[in-house]
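Appendix B, Record 12. Input sequence as logged:
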Amino acid sequence: MRKLTSAFALGCLAAFAPVQAVSQGVPAAGVSYSLQQSAAEDPGNRPIPIVIWAPKAGSRLGLIVISHGTGAGPTAHIDTAQALAEAGFVVVAPMHPGDNFQDDASVGKSNWFADRSRHVARVIDYMLTDWEGHARIAPRRIGIFGFSAGGTTALISVGGAPDLGRVTPHCASAPEFVCQIMRPNVPKQAPQWTHDKRIAAAVVTAPGIGFAFPPNGLKHVRVPVQLWAGSADETVPYASNTAIVRNLLPQAPEFHNVDGAVHLSFLAPCTAQTPAFLCQDRPGFDRAQFHASFNQSVTAFFQKQLKR
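Logged structural output:
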């Protein structure tokens, strides 16, 4: 497990690197948002590091929480965060303690997703009460974006309840990535999930452990969901993950199947500093071009579902 997550983590250093720029100044002139670092308290646990993209003007702003995937960090979806901030949303991205590029202590353990869903609630608490710009946020305009493990986190946050007892029978014959992480660590007791009714819309991208949701596992999800999958995703296969989520949601999601996209195609477009293995899209797949339309669709969804 350490080898698997460490390999992913090394690549995500490049995705996280832009956060260093926070201490060096604000975004370039003409950009309509500011970039900040802070931390949300999580009583009894470590503080949760966060990155905030905040429009420089406006009131009654929507708030979007971005939950990154395993071994990543707050800026793994930096282009999506920037697009949402440009559209007038306050965006906050936690670095999930126990599951990030520096720390994988919770990955695959019984507290993995329970901690992640709690982090989301604590970050929303911070943004609505302690953040210096909290008065500019409209509490009824809160959404969540999640990728991979972050997609699962988003589903739990809006009412989903996976049954981790389903991991062992599924992984007995399944070769998918998460089985290499979770199979030795299947919990003996059901975790306590944190659901947050303040969240009014969710964008769920290539969610993991879809197979762990029982037939009634998503019955309490009552918010609109935009659901994404990559047709070439072998890390989180469609049939055992996104397809199950799609079929179990009580309200049909706005579904997008991206032709030719692999799992990491949903990460921000690569730069010269990004490790090559994070940039291995299928031949002919243009990640930058895809993200231009992806970010537009994500932004339009939140604008529609989180109206002023």
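Helices lie at 2-16, 78-86, 112-129, 149-157, 167-171, 177-182, 242-248, 287-305.
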